[in-house]
Design goal:
Elements (H helix, E strand, L loop, with lengths): L6 E2 L2 E4 L3 H12 L8 E4 L41 H15 L10 E6 L5 E5 L2 E5 L1 E4 L21 E4 L13 E5 L3 H10 L5 E6 L5 E2 L5 H16 L7 H5 L1 E2 L2 H8 L5 E3 L3 E3 L2 E3 L5 E3 L2 E4 L24 E2 L2 E2 L2 E6 L8 H29 L1
Parallel strand pairs: 1-6, 2-3, 2-7, 7-20, 8-17, 9-10, 9-17, 10-13, 11-12
Antiparallel strand pairs: 4-5, 5-6, 14-15, 15-16, 18-19, 19-20
Helix pairs in contact: 1-7
């Protein structure tokens, strides 16, 4: 701690989901010590990242592509248990095993330029100073709500995936689900079992993907997202480049007409939605499964955004500021991608810190 009450570390990790824990693990492997050389700040009340906030009906067996954190496998999990419990317990055990000393709940409000080429990180726990920052804040805190004419007049209930309570609350109701991603289809198939009626609307026709998602397909999908990030554009959604995986539940829902899709409506009415061609659908609930945006507003003082609206990256490093690494953003916004990106970010941060140590004696 310096004379101004600002605590100094070499690296700050913001977020303790998959991406943040991966980064912290690799920092430890590189010889840095938690609470001495680096600190992990997480605003969630307990371990588990955004998983702890998932709806109860999302059981571990329904989770697509959950990859283990580096250095510790997740084994023997009951597929019938809520994913929030399974993954929350796994993350908690992981933090304890590697002694990551996560600080929570801590809100990071702003990252600013400090003195001596250091970063000032303002938080609810006070101010920290660091030479580098791994930003692993994900997207869960920034749900995207589209806006349509008449939306404020709807007399029913509107909610987003972030508030989805599970299907039971929709028993006997007429529900419109908006959104063509994995969450939207999962919500729709659950709700259809208990609702009086369901309607599915999406901006684009959904693309269903049969068969395994092999390495070649994975690389091609990542390359598409990487290209947008390299150009400084906001990342695309995962489903937009991978398609929706087909399993037995999806096949049944398609056969039963549950996944018959309509194009998105033109306006919202007090009792439902309407299209310009005269078609209307009455509803008690509109569920917006419309995705999320990157939770990076705290980085705004550094002016990292490009004219296209995104942060341009080379690997995980922000092109406009080599001290900032975004992990779990764009091409690394998957569990396996976050693992790899955590390792890559730490490798570059090591080079940054080693370069400084080489310069210091020459300056003295």
């Amino acid at each position: 701690m310096n004379n101004f009450g600002v605590r100094d570390v070499a690296v700050i990790v913001v977020g303790a989901g998959q991406a943040g824990l991966s980064g912290a693990y690799h920092l430890r492997r590189a010889g840095l010590e938690p609470d001495r050389d680096f600190v992990v700040l997480d605003h969630a009340p307990r371990a588990g990242g955004a998983w702890q906030l998932r709806w109860p009906s999302l059981t571990y067996g329904k989770v697509h592509g959950m990859h283990a954190l580096p250095g510790m496998e997740l084994t023997g999990a009951d597929e019938g248990r809520p994913s929030s419990e399974v993954i929350g317990e796994y993350f908690s055990a992981y933090e304890e095993r590697f002694g990551l000393k996560v600080h929570r709940p801590v809100d990071v409000t702003a990252v600013r330029e400090g003195a001596g080429a250091r970063l000032l990180v303002e938080t609810s726990e006070g101010t920290w100073s660091a030479r580098a920052l791994i930003n692993a804040t994900g997207t869960w805190d920034r749900p995207f709500w589209p806006r349509y004419p008449g939306q404020e007049t709807f007399r029913g209930r509107q909610l987003h995936t972030v508030n989805y309570p599970g299907p039971e609350e929709f028993t006997g109701q007429r529900v419109i689900v908006v959104g063509g991603g994995a969450s939207g289809t999962q919500h729709l198939m659950e709700i259809a079992e208990v609702a009086a009626d369901t309607t599915w609307v999406t901006r684009r026709p959904p693309v269903f993907r049969e068969g395994p998602f092999d390495e070649d397909a994975g690389r091609a999908a990542v390359a598409m997202v990487e290209e947008r990030v390299r150009l400084g554009l906001p990342p695309m959604s995962v489903v937009s480049v991978t398609g929706l995986p087909v399993n037995d539940a999806v096949r049944r829902a398609r056969a039963n007409g549950v996944l018959d899709r309509l194009p998105v409506f033109d306006r919202i009415t007090p009792t439902g939605v309407a299209w310009d061609d005269g078609r209307t659908v009455e509803a008690d609930v509109i569920l917006w499964a419309t995705g999320f945006r990157a939770a990076i507003d705290h980085l705004a003082p550094l002016r990292l955004r490009e004219p296209g609206g995104g942060i341009q990256l080379e690997g995980t490093r922000a092109v406009r500021d080599a001290r900032i690494h975004l992990v779990g953003y764009g091409p690394s916004a998957s569990t396996i991608g976050a693992n790899r990106a955590g390792r890559a970010a730490v490798r570059e941060i090591q080079r940054l810190l080693e370069g400084e140590r080489e310069i210091e004696p020459a300056l003295g």
